[in-house]
Predict the 3D structure of the following.
Amino acid sequence: MSEPKKLFIKTYGCQMNVYDSERMAEALGGQGYVEAKSADDADMILLNTCHIREKAAEKVYSELGRFKGLKAEKPDLKIGVAGCVAQAEGEEIMRRQPLVDLVVGPQSYHRLPEMEAKTREGEKALDTDFPEEDKFEKLKNRPKAKRGPTAFLTVQEGCDKFCAFCVVPYTRGAEVSRPADRIIHEAQDLVERGVREITLLGQNVNAYHGAGPNGDMTLAGLIWELNKIDGLERIRFTTSHPNDMSDDLIEAHGTCDKLMPYLHLPVQSGSDRILKRMNRSHTAESYLRLIERIREARPDILMSGDFIVGFPEETDEDFQATLNLVEQVKYGYAYSFKYSTRPGTPAAERPQVEPEVADDRLQRLQAMITQHQREIQDSMVGRTVRVLFEKPGRLAGQMVGKSEYLHAVHVTNADVATGDLRAVKITGSGANSLAGELI
Ligand code: 5AD
Ligand code: SF4
């Protein structure tokens, strides 16, 4: 019998890519591929790429360059580019880097098996369509292998918001929601395989409106359905847009026991002038009011957000408004980025902020965020949280898991196994994690 072929997937970017990579591995599993431990060991390498900022896209080309030697040693090695760079640049990738055999956009993963077969015939394969058929329906069911305690599950893809800086509406296409029964079925299957926490994914996840038994279902409706699954202990979702934070979803944060008290709700800027230029269609004030309502429903909720600094025409005053907003919200986590010009988006044509000014703002914003993050983390000391243990820690006898607020928590010399959900008293707060003891 011949050796099975080996597949190595390297994933960049967001959690949706992590999910997609798993599904691509399953699709190619049907072609006899097993996982390779490293690129050196592979018969096929797939880069699942991110196009959100320029740096992310450029990484792909430098990574591809590094495969030249490998391909020379192993002429049968196939190299593919998937994800958002594939979608955005298509054939250009093969022109720029001729060693690439396959380019597949995020809506076409179900066609991977045929595409792989084509490359084995010595041809190049390219597919960046937005096909009518649903890739998730066509992908094979996940094999019944045991899994770790946490999993991602994509429920919605694409975005119709067209923020002026963002490539997602172009690379991932229009907003599409998967039917509720498919998602519930997939969640049940994950739980049967050991998953206890599911994070529902979508570029605009709270705009979810998938077909349900009585017409379209909201995200809150879907969460309530998932809440019924025995053995599923925790539900999270990401990423949300402030304008789609519906009343039933806010309410669910107060009433749905499996929905965790953590919400990623990007605002991008605290300046109304910039928000308008970003085409965000909300104001700083409306965002703050929204958070107030969410906190009324669930007072201990931990907020997380995204920010862009140095957006075209951002003044010191605009930036100060962002700092003011951050000061008011106090995020438990927040991700801040320097504006990166994305060709084809409306903001790309506008007067840019000096890079040194943007760098300086980024540093100041990150310092403030880090301070709040630390304060919130430190305030957990003495409290009891519930930790879902995910894996052994780096030190001997240590286990690490996540609290309901998504803080990493370590315990040592305790009788816990991966997948256990246990009450833990927090005894210490470190740079990026908490320490605790079982109670
Ligand atoms: N430049 C910088 N940051 C960006 N983001 C999206 N597009 C850009 C861009 N062109 C950030 C936003 C978004 C997060 C995923 O990435 O903050 O919420
Ligand atoms: Fe991009 Fe999010 Fe705006 Fe959609 S809502 S365009 S994904 S930043």
In short: The chain is about 35% helix and 25% strand. The chain has a mean pLDDT of 95.
